[in-house]
Amino acid sequence: MLYVDWLSALLVLIGSLFCLIGAFGFIKMPDFITRVHSASLIDSFGAILIITGLIIQAGLTMASIKLAMILLFLLITGPTAIHALVNTALHDDKNYITGKDSASNT
Amino acid sequence: MKTIFISFVSLYILWELLSGYFKTNLIVLGIISCVFVTILSIKLKIYSKQHERIRLNLKLPLYIPWLLKEIIKSNLHVARCILSSNESIQPQLVTIKPSQKTSAGIAVHANSITLTPGTVSIDINDKNEILVHALTNDTAQGIINGDIDKQVTKLEGNKP
């Protein structure tokens, strides 16, 4: 079972690394819409890798079924939330989308 | 009637998966709450013909690995863009015309676009055109080429 432990540890570590990169980009990116792009990195690949690692660690139990369900719901609700956020920004002020917003400098 | 029965059974399977215990009182409680939810869904007219449902079909197991591959590819691309300087990004807007016919297919298409990093679907207008924001030229080109569009149309099939 040693290899299974190593595999799940590797997946969780790479997932955490991608979450870290996403959080870094969230600070570094110049304006609103590009920040959303870097946040979606956390939402998709970070979540997939971490939860896959946890499923491998849990094995064939009830917990892994629940983890798989959490992953499924995250993959559906995450893009919906991002779409709602960006769509609100579009209807509020088009400059958020085109990247000419003055708020990005503050 | 068949739809109502299928939804009742799948609700009960969901209950069993989430609880994991086979005690009498829990089973009875599960059946009662499933019946309650089914009656509520009938009252809310969820089973009527006006609502389009996303059907599970046999092409889904082919679509999900393809989408995962795309997610991994564009993830590495976006991570590289974040770690390099800000000059490496070219934010731009792209409008595409999806070839799906049902609104459920268009929703799956827009959701897949947002799920792949580097592209975000912003708006869907009255003519069913999706406004997409892309982070770099590469991801914008991927959207214009319409790979996701082809795959979702394949997934949707040619049902009426």
Describe the overall structure.
The complex is a heterodimer of chains A (106) and B (160). Chain A has 106 residues and is mainly alpha-helical. Chain A has one domain (2-101). Chain A is built from 4 helices and no strands. Chain A has helices spanning 2-28, 32-58, 62-92, 94-98. Chain B is mostly helical and 160 residues long. Chain B folds into 2 domains: 2-43; 60-156, no CATH class. Chain B is built from 6 helices and 3 strands. A 3-stranded antiparallel β-sheet of chain B has the order 1-3-2. In chain B, a hairpin with a 5-residue loop joins strand 2 and strand 3 (130-134). In chain B, helix 3 (60-83) packs antiparallel against helix 6. The two termini of chain B are 21 Å apart. Chains A and B meet through helix 1, helix 2 and helix 3 of A and helix 3, helix 4 and strand 2 of B.
Please tell me how large the radius of gyration of chain A is: 17 Å
- If interface size is counted as residues with C-beta under 8 Å from the partner's C-beta, which chains form the largest one? A-B, 36 and 29 residues
Structural class of chain A: mainly alpha
Helix content range of chain A: over 70%
Helix/strand order of chain A: HHHH
